[in-house]
Amino acid sequence: MRKGLLLCHLCLCVLLLMMGCTGDGVQMRQQLEKLEQQNRAGEKLLNDSLAEDLVEYFDRHGDANERMRSKYMLGRTYYHLGELPRALETYLEAADCADTTSKDCNYHVLCRIHSQSAEIFHKQVQPRSELKELRIAEYYAKKANDTLTAIECYALQSGAYDFLHMPDSVIVVKEQASHLFKKIGRIDKSAQTLINTVVSIVEKGELDKARHYLDLYETKTVFFDENSNICKGFEVFYYIKGYYYLATNQLDSAEYLFRKELRDGKDLNNQIAGCKGLQELYEKKKISDSIAKYANWGYILNDSAYSLSEMQNIQKFQASYNYNHQQFLAEKNARKAERTVAWLVVVSALLVVLLLAIYLFYQKYKADKERAQAEYRLNQSKLEEAQSELLELRERNQDADALINKRAEEIKALQKRIDEYQSRQDSYDSATLEDRIDNSEIVKELDALLELNPVQSATQSQMRELKKFINEQIPCFYESLNESQVLRPIEYEVCVLTRCHFKPASICKLLNRSDGYIANLRKGILLKVYGIKGSPKDLDERIMRIN
Predict the structure, then answer these.
(1) Model confidence at 93, in pLDDT bands (50, 70, 90)?
(2) At which of 380, 412, 436 does a domain end?
(3) Which of 122, 233, 370, 546 is the most interior residue, by most CB within 10 Å?
(4) Can you give the pLDDT at residue 425?
(5) Are residues 429 and 486 in the same domain?
(6) Is residue 426 scored above 60 in pLDDT?
(7) Residues 130-141: what's their mean pLDDT?
(8) For residue 405, how many C-alpha atoms fall within 13 Å in the half-sphere facing its CB?
(9) Per DSSP, what are the bridge partners of residue 224?
(10) Is 328 or 96 the better-scoring residue by pLDDT?
(11) Helical segments of 164-287, H only
(12) Does one domain contain both 229 and 275?
């Protein structure tokens, strides 16, 4: 009755814990989906505390996709906070969480992670890293059957080639991307992709192709109003078209477009492009005063652009590495304390459940053992009595064959039951030995070395301690292996580690030896100790039978 009540309490505790964990999981997944919706809507993610909590939760309780998604949202948060190095590092951690061997791997998210890593590399002017990330993003977009995104990732590679001063590669990538956009029916994107190649094509003298690309951009995109004015933010088109007119000696049209860019494009890049175009125009007209005017103006604008760029870079670095802000640390410590209290409550409850389970198991084990011992003593007593009667009958030489046979059968049955008990007891003792080996401090200490990164090999002191432990637990172990020939120290250490349940790969790491060396050593030990040729596995089986 008492045991039944304890079992009921145990089941109730487990059920309550499972309900609590399930509730947390639903809430965390809802918060993750909400962050993803905000990100897709273009909203800035600024709550790094929430994102870090999600990462911490899914690192413990989530699958590969959930760990990747939560780290991706944390990376987006760092990006919006201006902490680009932390964002990039978190993106790479998110990509590492992906299980690409799984059928349900979220390749859409994996593609976005690599494409936005490429964006950071582009801002940091690291074209080769950018190119690598864009190629990976393109690959995962194809795995996700997202053809449009795959083509966009391919087209963006032209920016990296531009940084590498490879104009021919820029043209090849842009033209191929335009062709791919056209194949899937995106004529607008096909035309947009080609426009940035016009200046390079003009410089190569392919004026007809340049004219064709300009016409496509003006007729197939939605950036122009009814008066052929381009929408705000795209005014650099005036410089591109003006450059074409300059190359075809349509100087008035070129001047009109360059001045239009100066008038409509108010940012530094458009002002610099307009000045550059007018300078080139007046160089062609050979008007020295105007050349000097726009060259000087362009120099001033370039200097301003450089100063602005340097200031932005300084601000980025300050924002990226300012991790010691007191308010941030205080909030983080407070959250950590709250999580610690919550975990203490959970661990305490689990400990109570575990202690109850151990107590019930021990009581059952104790009762079973006492019952088995009582039965063993009873059978032993009956066996002695039967043997005594049989001996007495034989000494008296009485004609009692039937009784003798009966007693012999009883003896046989009792002996069988005793043998079964002893077999169970031997099996229990063997299992107890294996448990002692697994739970020993020195074995746990060596297991801990294997968990380190990088893995550390065992010290001489640790190996001496392990050999001492085995000699205490299995006194015949050393004599069993060294009976025919004395093993070398390294050979005996391999045998000791094998008996302590270490796998061959772990033995290689602990002894700082190669896989091939240890495999050949084990074959040699098998031949030396047992006089047979076989596989290393044959040696393991024989060593594990030494008790």
Answers:
(1) very high
(2) 436
(3) 122
(4) 53
(5) no
(6) no
(7) 94
(8) 4
(9) 230
(10) 96
(11) 167-183, 187-195, 198-203, 207-220, 236-247, 251-264, 268-285
(12) yes
Contact 457, 511 (CB under 8 A): yes
Statement to judge: residues 299 and 375 lie in one domain: no
Give me the mean pLDDT over the 306-327 stretch: 45
d(CA 63, CA 97): 9
Mean pLDDT of 391-414: 66
Distance of alpha carbon 150 from alpha carbon 139, whole angstroms: 7
Residue 529: CB atoms within 10 Å: 20
Least confident of 112-126, 214-228, 312-326, 453-467: 312-326
The reply to whether 465 and 526 lie within a common domain is yes
Rounded mean pLDDT of 508-536? 92
Residues 539 and 444 in one domain: yes
**Separation in Å, CA 477 to CA 419, 500, 506, 543, 547:** 26, 12, 21, 9, 7
Instruction: Using alpha carbons, select from 411, 380, 370, 374 the residue that is nearest to residue 394.
Output: 411
Domain with 429, as residue range(s), is 328-436
Q: How many domains does the chain have?
A: 3
- State the average pLDDT over residues 21-40: 83
Q: Distance between CA atoms of 393 and 402, rounded to whole angstroms?
A: 11
The rounded distance, in Å, linking the Cα atoms of 58 and 73 is: 12
Half-sphere CA count of 195, side-chain side, radius 13 A: 24
User: Which pLDDT does position 308 carry in this prediction?
Assistant: 46
Residue 302 lies in a domain: yes
Residue 351's alpha-carbon distances to 20, 113, 344, 346, in angstroms, are 16, 41, 10, 9
Cα separation of 518 and 489, whole Å? Answer: 13
What average pLDDT does the structure give for the chain?
A: 80
Same domain, 314 and 345: no
Task: Measure Cα distances from 358 to 202, 366, 529, 532 in Å.
Answer: 83, 12, 43, 46
What average pLDDT does range 157-164 have in this prediction?
Answer: 92
pLDDT number for residue 325: 43
Residue 409 shares a structural domain with residue 462: no
* Same domain assignment for residues 454 and 420: no
**CB 196 within 8 Å of CB 223:** no
Q: Are 114 and 133 in contact (CB under 8 A)?
A: yes
Looking at the domain assignment, is residue 293 inside a domain?
A: yes
In a domain, 112, yes or no: no
Spatial CB neighbours of 456, under 8 Å, sequence gap ≥ 6: 449
Tokens of residue 463, six digits: 């190996």
- The candidate with the shortest Cα–Cα distance to 321, out of 39, 86, 19, 1, is 86
Which tokens hold the place of 350? 């689990």
In a domain, 159, yes or no: no
- Domain final residue, candidates 256, 291, 321: 321
DSSP output for 395-464:
HTT-S-HHHHHHHHHHHHHHHHHHHHHHHHHHHHHHHHHHHHHHH-HHHHHHHHHHHSSS--PPPHHHHH
